[in-house]
Amino acid sequence: MTKTLIRHAVARDFQSLLEIDEASFPGGVAYDAAELAYFMNRNGAETIVAELDGAIMAFLIMEVHRTHRTATIVTLDVRETHRRTGLGSELLKRSEGILSDYGVEAYDLQVDVTNRAAISFYKKHGFSMVRTLRNYYANGNDAYLMVKELS
User: Fold this and answer.
1) How many C-beta atoms surround the C-beta of residue 73 within 10 A?
2) What's the whole-model pTM score?
3) Which residue from 31, 81, 100, 115 has the least number of CB within 10 angstroms?
4) How far, in Å, are 27, 28, 40, 66, 135 from residue 72 at the CA level?
5) Is 108 within 8 Å of 99 (Cβ atoms)?
6) Cα(95)–Cα(21) distance, rounded to whole angstroms?
7) Which residues on adjacent β-strands are paired with residue 149?
8) 96-107: string of b/e by CB count within 10 Å (b at 16+)?
9) Which residue ranges form the domains of the chain, and what is each CATH number?
């Protein structure tokens, strides 16, 4: 029986997280090692992973802006073999618990306007599109800014 474990990331997870991110996004969107380390180590950053039978299959990085009671999802990555299995939803649910503990009232994210699956996923989880961010990604693609209120 497969058991899912959601936990905070530790230093030894870094290489797995980098591999998942590089496999999840095209060049110009995927983070390189320096960028991923930067986002994971920023003040207010929280990184959680979803593990199945000891192997990391997904992760989420968020940045909490405590003074504003807001947060941003930096990235939510799921290995292709485990997409549409509920891991992303589990990570999102756990992130919302962490954000509630911080007193966060709303959080946001940016998603490529061409990534229909991700847009649908976030809408299903209560995010609303606020506006389009032109040329947001290094590859020139636009992004939607999506926001969710927490209660």
Assistant:
1) 22
2) 0.93
3) 81
4) 22, 20, 13, 11, 19
5) no
6) 18
7) 106
8) bebbeebebeeb
9) 4-149 (3.40.630.30)
